[in-house]
Each structure stands twice: as C-alpha cells, then as structure tokens.
C-alpha cells in the first residue's frame, strides 16, 4: 500500500512510499482510506515538538481518516464489514475512572492516531473498532473535516450547559472551530455574538448571529460591554489568544461559563480574580470529546446543523506540498484524497 511516512523530523523527512499493509489486532478494524485531513498536530509531529514529540519514527501521518471497513480483527462485530466510517483521532485508554463513566474526553491516558500509532495518510489504516465511527451517508471529506472539530465544540456546549436563549459569545469565530461553534450556538437557539479579528461577512454567519470585529482585546472589551452590558452566559474561546480569552471572561454575566478550546495558545492569562470570584464565574478547558459526543456531532452534521467548509485538496502523493502550504492556505479544512 501507499503511505505518507515521516522517517526524520522536518518537512523533508516525509515520503510517500510502498509499505506492507497493517494487520488488524484483536478489537481493531482495517479501514480503506478515502480522505484524511491536514492538522496542526501533524506539523508538531513533523517538527518533533510539543505534543508531536510522542511520535516514534518512522510514523505514518494522518489523524482523521474516513473510508470503508475492509477487514476485522478478532472479536469485532461481523456486521461492521463494509461500513462507511470516520476515525476519532483520540483513543481513550478504556481502563481509567473517566473511561468507566464514558467521559473519555477526560481520560488522562489518551493516545492519538498518527502520533502514538500509524495514522491514516495511507491506503489502509488499522484502528480500534471503537474509534471507527459510523458516518452513514456523510461524504468522506466532510466526515474528515468534522470528526475532530465539531465534537470538541459540542463538548464545549454540553460542558457549559448552553440552553436556548442563552447569550453566547464565540471568540476566534473566523476559524474552523469558531465557525463550528457559531453554527452550533445558533442551532441550539442561543443569542449569538461571533467575534473575530477581521470582519466576517454577514452571508457567512447563520441567520440572527451578530458579527463583531476587533483588532485587539481592548477594542473587543469595549464592543462587548456596549453590546451586552449585562454580560454573556457563555463564552466559547477558540482564539487561543490570552488577552481575547481575558476579555471574554470579563464579559461574562453572573455565574457565566467560559470554555477554552484552542490547541495553539498563549501560556498566560490575566484575570480580574475578584470579579471572577464575586460573580461566580467558571473557566473550563475542553480538548477532545467523548465517543458519544462524536456520534452526536456526526448526527448534527448529517442533519445540516453544521457543515464544515472544505478548503484545498491534494492527492496523497502531494501531501508534502499540503503541509508546506498549510499555514498560508485559504479558509477551510485541507483534505488529502487518498483514493
Ligand atoms: Zn481512560
């Protein structure tokens, strides 16, 4: 099979080569891959930095493949053969207290497809059967684009217990996660303000959502207090920018919840601690999703509540070019067409 293999750190360490097909271990399935996405985490693996240092080389890249189940390991339900699936990148340990309560997002021993084990930038990938999630009629590229981002955002909403009519602020609304957060907030009947650095065209926003553009945190604070002097019930921050998150927390109403879910982020956050304490605010970090949330997120995608935008597409042989161009690529999920 053809596979994109990282054999040494750096973009020059990637080559698309022939490799032996993996064999499914007990409890695993083999997926014939149609699409896989390009992610920031891949770039960390390639550079050998941050969370990417967990990868041992050589490593097949690719976190979020979608395709068809073509072989089953021992103990897997035979009905799963030929199923259209998408792979949840984070594999929960299955043995800890969080896993026992099906709160797999909070499992402290998660491993990641394409980091701790070979990934899906290959014609065939082996994954635990539980991580190959049925995608029904969702096209492979849409499932690849949705499987990591939409469940995280859904987890943020469920963790913050967003209810119909809540005032919800999304900061970093222009990016992939921000678009998903804005769409879901509108779908859940919240009163939504979508904030970003540059103006988001009204045609890009769900009906009823107010877009605001602020180039810095001070301007954002001023606009937010003018818009909702009483404050917001929930802030979903995907900007990863400390001062922006600080502005969001400051804009929370009594008992407001701020959820922080950005992979790339500042290391410091300044808060008015007295305000935080007196007004009973909460700040929560969300970095992955429970298995049930992935299934609910895919149901929302299938129902049209949120539709990930597809950006540039490359064939597997040009995956190196996709990684090189990732930082400057136009909006939307970068997709590798494997077959
Ligand atoms: Zn666990």
Which spans have pLDDT < 50 for at least 5 consecutive residues?
A: none
Anisotropy-based shape? globular
Bound molecule kinds, no repeats: zinc ion
Within CATH, the superfamily of the largest domain carries the name: Medium-chain alcohol dehydrogenases, catalytic domain
Mean pLDDT: 95
DSSP, total strands? 18
How many separate helices?
Answer: 10
How large is the share of residues in beta strands?
A: 25-35%
Per CATH, the architecture of the largest domain is Alpha-Beta Complex
Class from helix and strand fractions? alpha/beta
In helices, the fraction of residues equals 25-40%
Radius of gyration: 20 Å
- Largest sheet report: 7 strands, mixed
The span between the termini is 11 Å
- The CATH class name of the largest domain reads Alpha Beta
CATH topology of the largest domain: Quinone Oxidoreductase, Chain A, domain 1
Summarize the structure.
Helices cover about 25% and strands about 25% of the residues. With about 350 residues, the chain is α/β, with parallel strands linked by helices.
What does this structure look like?
This protein is of the alpha/beta class. It has 2 domains: 2-147 and 309-337, Alpha-Beta Complex (Quinone Oxidoreductase, Chain A, domain 1), CATH 3.90.180.10; 151-285, 3-Layer(aba) Sandwich (Rossmann fold), CATH 3.40.50.720. Helices cover 25% and strands 27% of the residues. It has 10 helices and 18 strands. The chain has helices at 40-47, 97-100, 140-146, 149-159, 176-187, 217-227, 242-250, 273-278, 291-302, 319-324; strands at residues 2-6, 14-18, 28-37, 59-60, 66-72, 84-87, 90-91, 111-112, 124-128, 132-134, 167-171, 191-196, 210-213, 232-237, 252-260, 282-285, 310-315, 333-337. Strands 3, 5, 6, 9, 10, 17 and 18 form a 7-stranded mixed sheet that branches. α4 crosses α5, α4 packs across α9 (291-302) and α6 (217-227) runs parallel beside α7. It binds zinc ion.
């Amino acid at each position: 099979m053809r596979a994109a293999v990282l054999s040494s750190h750096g973009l020059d360490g990637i080559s698309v080569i022939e490799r032996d097909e993996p064999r499914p271990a007990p409890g695993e399935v083999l997926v014939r891959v149609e699409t896989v996405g390009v992610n920031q985490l891949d770039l960390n693996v390639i550079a050998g930095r941050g969370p990417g240092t967990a990868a041992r080389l050589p490593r097949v890249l690719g976190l979020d493949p979608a395709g068809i189940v073509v072989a089953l390991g021992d103990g897997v339900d035979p009905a799963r053969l030929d199923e259209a699936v998408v792979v949840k990148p984070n594999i929960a340990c299955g043995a800890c207290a969080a896993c026992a309560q099906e709160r797999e997002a909070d499992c402290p021993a998660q491993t990641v497809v394409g980091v701790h084990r070979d990934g899906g930038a290959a014609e065939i990938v082996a994954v635990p059967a539980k991580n190959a999630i049925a995608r029904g009629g969702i096209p492979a590229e849409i499932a690849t684009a949705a499987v990591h981002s939409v469940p995280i955002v859904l987890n943020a909403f469920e963790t913050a217990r967003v209810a119909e009519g809540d005032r919800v602020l999304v900061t970093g609304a222009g990016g992939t996660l921000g678009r998903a957060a804005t769409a879901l907030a509108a779908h859940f009947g919240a009163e939504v303000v979508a904030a970003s650095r540059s103006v988001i065209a009204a045609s890009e926003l769900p009906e009823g959502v107010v877009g605001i553009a602020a180039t810095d945190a001070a301007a954002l604070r001023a606009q937010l207090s003018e818009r909702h002097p009483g404050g917001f019930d929930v802030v979903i921050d995907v900007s990863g920018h400390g001062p922006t998150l600080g502005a969001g927390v400051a804009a929370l109403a009594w008992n407001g919840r701020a959820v922080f879910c950005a992979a790339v982020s500042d290391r410091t956050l300044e808060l008015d601690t007295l305000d935080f304490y007196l007004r009973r605010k909460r700040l929560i970090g969300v970095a992955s999703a429970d298995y049930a949330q992935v299934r609910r997120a895919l149901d929302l995608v299938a129902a049209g509540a949120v539709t990930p935008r597809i950006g540039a597409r490359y064939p597997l042989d040009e995956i190196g070019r996709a990684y090189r161009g990732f930082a400057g690529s136009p909006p939307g999920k970068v997709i590798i067409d494997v077959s």
